Amino acid sequence: MTNQTETFSGSKHFRLNHVANGVFAAISVPGTGSLGNAAIIDLGDSTLVVDTFLTIEAAEDLQAAAIELTGKPVSYVINTHWHSDHTSGNQVFAPEAQIISTSVTREIMATFGTERLARQLANPEPIVKAMDELDEKIQQETDDKLKKEMQWENASDREYMNILPKLEYTLPTITFDGQMTIHGSDRTVQLITYGGGHTQSDAFVYLPEEKIAITGDLVLSKHHPVMMYANPDAWLDILERVEGLGVETIIPGHGEVCGVKELHEVRSYINDIVALVTEAVQNKKSIDELAVPEAYVDWYFTTYFKPNVKKVYDSIAESAASTPL
Predict the structure, then answer these.
(1) Given this model, what pLDDT does residue 5 score?
(2) Cα Rg of the chain (Å, integer)
(3) Residue ranges per domain, the chain?
(4) What is the pLDDT of residues 142-153, one digit of tens each?
(5) CATH topology assigned to domain 4-113+167-322
(6) β-strand 74-78 against 47-50: which pairing, if any?
(7) Bond from prior residue into 95 cis (ω within 30 degrees of 0)
(8) Which residues contact 102 (CB under 8 A, 6 or more apart)?
(9) Prediction pTM value
(10) Of 17, 119, 170, 186, whose CB count within 10 A is highest?
(11) Rounded mean pLDDT of 265-276?
């Protein structure tokens, strides 16, 4: 059978990966307007897209790929969480597609997300200034890997700023809590949330017949997990429950299509960061001295390591302050 991905003319924003019959991963190309991964699922009588990238242009290419691969318009869009690299392309699919998220994710998008976009549109100068400052840091950076990552980060930010004047923040139209099932003529997909781990609320899409999970940023492949809004203990619990479903193939939020091994690696990363910070606190060491553990030196998103350490430190400090003597 001809590989269906060969029928799509291509996009600078992502590479298509044929995961199973009628299931495609759109793997982000670094430094473009995608930033995160997305997925396309042919349900038979309808098409579902999981996450919608950082920019309008990337989302338009995703929509074109979905129509080319399935022969149908997109009927459903799932936002796994509220971060902009998974939601900014929503406007491309609305109103024809129903956009679905958890109730909490929609609430965050309707408040914090909407207000943030309004601030960015009213005063884009702070973002432009930050990009210019990062350009200066890039010129001075001597670590080739880190320099490349910083270049990718700034390129993605510039792609976002280019589309900012045209961005219409588009909220989910359907919300769920716990689980929701979509029955297509050829396959059934489950939308599941076990609460918040990576963010205040994370959902993933599970294909029970194929044992495929599209996890959003609950699982990343060879990328530092982003812990800015994380609850580490809850995240570990969620990963255990995802594994308990019998998942075999994972389309992660960032990185290549992977499996349970990478889920275990994310779990190890979270445990290792917590252990590192806990030890530093107990020994009264500065967390600024903590270096990336050897196991994660080759991973991408290196710039998130120090913010991750700070997040865990703040969580430990907050817990200690609230514990009665």
Answers:
(1) 61
(2) 20
(3) 4-113+167-322
(4) 999 999 999 999
(5) Metallo-beta-lactamase; Chain A (3.60.15)
(6) parallel
(7) yes
(8) 175, 176, 177, 193, 201, 202, 203
(9) 0.95
(10) 170
(11) 97
